[in-house]
Amino acid sequence: MMDIDGGAGAEFVESTRNFLQWFQSLPGATFHQNIRIEDLRERGAGRGIIATADIEPDTVLFTIPRQAILCAETSDLATKLPALFAQDASAAASDDNDGDDSKSQDGWTLLILMLIHEALQGSASRWKPYLDILPRRFDTPMFWPALDLAELQASDVVAKIGKADADAMIRTRILPTIHANSAAFFPAGTAPLSDEDLWELAHRMGSTIMAYAFDLESDDAPSEKESTPEDDWVEDHAPPTILGMVPLADLLNADATFNAHINHSPAALTAVALRAVPAGTEILNYYGPLPNSELLRRYGYVTPAHARHDVVELPWALIQSHLRAPLRALSDTQWAAATASVEDADDTFVLERATDDPDATGQIATLATFAGLPEELTDAVKTFLKGVLKAAPRAAAFLEDKTARKAVILEGVHGALGEREGQYATTLEEDDALLGNGARGRKEMAVWVRRGEKNLLREAREWVAGQLDEARRAGLSRGREYEEGDGQAAKRRRR
Ligand SMILES: C[S@@+](CC[C@H](N)C(=O)[O-])C[C@H]1O[C@@H](n2cnc3c(N)ncnc32)[C@H](O)[C@@H]1O
C-alpha cells in the first residue's frame, strides 16, 4: 500500500490527466483506446490500468519510447556529473543494494540520486508530470512501527527488512554526494534542503525504486533475443542491465497470474496483452514468483495468488537439535564430537512448493504442492550423519543402513518443522479466523504472510510424515527396529 498523492480526488484526477497528456505527447508513445488509468485506491492499489472495452490477445496496449525512461542514459544528472556515473561502471550495472559502507555508487544509489535530482528541479524536470504521480509515502514494513512488525511473528521477512542497511547507504553514499555536488542538485536561487528532508526524500526514492524500477538491457548489451513468453517470466534478465524508471509500464499492478507483459526492444518498451482481456478487467503485469513476504517487503501488498510461492527457512541448528532424539544412542560426548565437526552451522534451508511457471497467457493451470525437501538440506544431514558415524561407530552403526538413515533424517526434519511452526505466536486456525473476521490494513497483510508460511510448514510436515511412514514400513519389513529412531535397540541387537 502507498499514499499516492495526498488523497484529494480532484488532485488525483488532475495529476493522472497531466501525466497521460505528457506521456501521449512523447514522440513514439502510444496508448491504446481501449484502456484507461483507473483510481483503485479504495482497495489500496493506487492507480492501475483497466480495459474499457474487450481487448484481443497480442494487442499492443502502450508503447514507451526509450527516451521517456529515466535512467543513466537519459538523466541530466549523468551529463552534469559524468565522473560520478563512470565511477564504477560494473557496480552501476547491478541493482544489488548491499548497504555496505563503501562510498562508491552502484545502479541503485545512482538511480536514487537521479530521482532526487529530478524532484529538486521542480517544473524544470522533463519528468515532472511523471514524478507527480509517484507515491509520496510508502507503507512497506521498512516504515512500520514495532507493534505492526510484531504481527509478522516468526516470519523470516522481519530480518530482511533492511532499514539499517538503507540508512547506512543514505548516510554514506547519498547525502555526501549531494553535499559535494550541491550546485548540480539544487537549481540556482533555491535553498538546499535540510539533511532531514533529504533523508526522507532519499528513503522515498529508494522505496520507489524497489517497487517501480525496471531492469533494462543497456545499450552495450545485445538486444533481447527472440524468446518464448515463458522465458520472460524469469525475473532476472541476463546481465548487463541498468535500472530505470519506466513511466506507464510502472502503472500496471501485478499478480501471480496476469494478462500483460512488457517487451523490451532497443527503441521502445511495449505492453502487450497475453490473452483476451474482457472490458472492465484490470491489466496486470507480473513481478515474478515472489512469496507474499517478499511482495510485502518490496511492494507493500500481498495477494492470495502469490501464496503458492511462499517460503520458510529452516535453520540448520533447529534441524540438528531434532536429530538428537533419533540419535539418542550417542553419549553426550559423542554427540558433542559430531556436532563440533559441522561446518556452516549457520546455514538455513529454504522450503518451497513445486510449482509450474505461468504459461504463455500468464496463467497457471496446476496447483502448487510440497513435493520434497531441498537437496542441500538432505545433503547437509547426510554429511552430518557421516560425522556421527565417525564419532560413534558402534552406537550409530544402524546408520550404515540407507533406510535407517532416511528415517533419521525425516524424523529430525519432522521435529524441526513442528518447532518452527510453534515459533509463530498464533496458530494457522487462529489466523484463518482473523482473516475471516475482517482483519484490515497492515495486520491483514501480516496475517497473510504468516498464515501462508504456517500453511507451507504444515504441508511440508505432512509430506515428511508420509515419507517417514514409508521408511518405517520398509524398515519393519526388513526386521529392523530403528523405526522409532532407537539406535539403542540396534546397538543391543549387535551384542
Ligand atoms: C509498479 S507500481 C504499480 C502502480 C501503482 N498502483 C501506482 O498507483 O503507482 C507497484 C505498486 O502498486 C501496488 N500494487 C501492485 N499490484 C497490486 C495488487 N495486485 N494489489 C494491490 N496493490 C498492488 C503496490 O503498492 C506496489 O508497490
CATH class of the largest domain: Alpha Beta
- Computed Rg: 27 Å
Share of β-strand residues: 5-15%
How widely separated are the two ends? 67 Å
The CATH architecture classification of the largest domain is: Alpha-Beta Complex
The strand count comes to: 14
Helix content: 40-55%
Chemical compounds bound to the protein: S-adenosylmethionine
| Secondary structural class | alpha+beta
The name of the CATH superfamily of the largest domain reads set domain protein methyltransferase, domain 1
The stretches of 5 or more residues where confidence is low (pLDDT under 50) are: 92-101, 221-237, 481-495
Shape assignment? globular
Arrangement of strands in the largest sheet: 2-5-11-10
What about the largest sheet? 4 strands, antiparallel
The number of distinct structural domains comes to 2
At CATH level 3, the topology of the largest domain is set domain protein methyltransferase, domain 1
Mean pLDDT over all positions: 90
GO molecular function, one term: protein-lysine N-methyltransferase activity
Keywords: Methyltransferase, S-adenosyl-L-methionine, Transferase
Protein name: SET domain-containing protein
Organism: Lasiosphaeris hirsuta
